[in-house]
Amino acid sequence: MEIERFRWWHIAEVLPIEEELFGAERWSSAMFWNELAQLNFYIVATESDELLGYAGLAATGDEAWVQNIAVRRTAQRRGVGRALLEALLAEAERRGKKQTLLEVAVDNAPAQRLYATYDFEPVGIRRGYYQPSNTDALVMMRNA
């Protein structure tokens, strides 16, 4: 598996993964274009020219925010999400960020367990954060 920078040509490849994983709450191509235009740090994981997953990080002030981590269903439970998260945390450290935060659906226990292994702890709830399902988001944070 290789981790490389997310480029504009990856947008078409990530949209089906967004649909598969997030359905009505998926990101649009415009949202990804916006993330790239803001120069946020985005990466993809590939293997044999297949895009397995992607992740993004926004940084401002002393904080970094994990924007997303997504791994296609057929590649889950193979360490792809872990590798993407480690790359994001390394970038946050490289940028000298004191805290890294993220939001995760309250019903996504596997992701919450992954984040907990990297010292993320719950710090709050965003009620009705994910739309249109109105699902709450758990806010998690780790200190550098």
TrEMBL record:
GO cellular component: ribosome
Classification via InterPro entries: AcTrfase_RimI/Ard1, Acyl_CoA_acyltransferase, Bact_Acetyltransf, GNAT_dom
Catalytic function, reaction form: N-terminal L-alanyl-[ribosomal protein bS18] + acetyl-CoA = N-terminal N(alpha)-acetyl-L-alanyl-[ribosomal protein bS18] + CoA + H(+)
Keywords: Acyltransferase, Cytoplasm, Ribonucleoprotein, Ribosomal protein, Transferase
Pfam family, one: Acetyltransf_1
Enzymatic class: transferase
Domain N-acetyltransferase: start-end pairs: 1-144
GO molecular function: protein-N-terminal-alanine acetyltransferase activity
Record-annotated membrane-spanning stretches: none
Predominant subcellular localization, coarse grouping: cytoplasm
E.C. code: 2.3.1.266
Gene3D superfamilies attached to this UniProt entry: 3.40.630.30
Localisation: Cytoplasm
Family to which this protein belongs: Belongs to the acetyltransferase family. RimI subfamily.
Function: Acetylates the N-terminal alanine of ribosomal protein bS18.
NCBIfam families per record: rimI
Official protein name in the record: [Ribosomal protein bS18]-alanine N-acetyltransferase
Originating species: Paractinoplanes globisporus
